Structure to design on (287 residues):
């Protein structure tokens, strides 16, 4: 399993599995608070892997890593807020 | 002699923190991402005012096509990371090969998307049908244009890579283009669950 030492290969595998989970949740018609939170968490984890292991910002100056991860937090929070409003 | 012993005892310095590619591309990427953040938030808040309508029409979307396209962009990104890694170890043959494979994944994305659009437009759906389709079409089309731009960049990188421009001595241009390509992937990773699945 030498290939899995490469963070990009690991990220790729996790991204494929995570996408399959989101697709499956869609197939079974998952809806409501729990489903929304689960899908947002999955999207967040995926986005973070792209930022850290594909864009290779893990070892980048802290500012740029924070800017991109901050974007991810901002977008997920806004979506969560909007969905929370819609559930009320 | 003494200096040599000391040098051997000192652990190798941790590599310096480095931003891949050129600084300018990261400002460009950030600007693009902010534009998409506004788009994503607009969709989510518009949905909050029309939940039933959005939930109803979301079911007409082709989730399989959306998931397949996610696989294609993720894999396309992965090939481009491999191209960058190949440059760092001076594997001149693997650089253009992986860029080309990344480009083909992008091409696959466009083909799937064109079939998806054809089905929707064929059913008489347009931007003016309703708010949901207005968002679906404009968001995915705005992203579609970014995939095309990403593929134009990959083409330039491929031509340069074949000339042997990139290697362990300099991979800045390659890293900059790669970062843009990963952004296209990152945006779709949010867009797919948001527009196709979350309800």
């Amino acid at each position: 399993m030498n290939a899995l030492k490469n963070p990009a290969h690991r990220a790729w595998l996790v991204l494929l599995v995570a996408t399959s989970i989101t697709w499956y949740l869609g197939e079974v018609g998952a809806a409501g608070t729990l489903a929304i939170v689960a899908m947002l968490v999955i999207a967040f984890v995926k986005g973070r892997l792209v930022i850290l292991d594909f864009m290779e910002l893990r070892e980048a100056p802290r500012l740029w890593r924070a800017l991109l991860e901050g974007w991810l937090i901002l977008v997920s929070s806004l979506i969560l807020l909007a969905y929370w409003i819609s559930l009320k | 002699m003494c200096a040599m012993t000391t040098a051997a005892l000192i652990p190798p310095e941790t590599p310096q923190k480095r931003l891949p590619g050129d600084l300018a591309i990261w400002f460009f990427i950030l600007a693009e991402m902010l534009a998409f953040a506004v788009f994503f938030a607009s969709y989510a808040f518009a949905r909050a005012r029309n939940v039933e309508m959005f939930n109803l029409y979301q079911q007409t979307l082709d989730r399989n096509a959306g998931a397949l396209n996610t696989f294609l962009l993720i894999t396309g990104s992965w090939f481009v990371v491999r191209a960058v890694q190949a440059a760092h170890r001076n594997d001149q043959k693997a650089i253009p090969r992986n860029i080309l494979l990344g480009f083909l994944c992008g091409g696959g994305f466009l083909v799937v998307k064109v079939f998806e659009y054809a089905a929707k437009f064929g059913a008489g759906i347009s931007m003016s049908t309703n708010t949901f389709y207005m968002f679906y079409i404009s968001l995915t089309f705005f992203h579609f244009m970014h995939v095309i731009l990403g593929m134009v960049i990959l083409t330039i990188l491929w031509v340069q890579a074949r000339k042997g421009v990139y290697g362990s001595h300099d991979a800045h241009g390659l890293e900059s283009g790669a970062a843009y390509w990963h952004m296209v992937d990152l945006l779709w990773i949010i867009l797919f669950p948001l527009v196709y699945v979350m309800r």
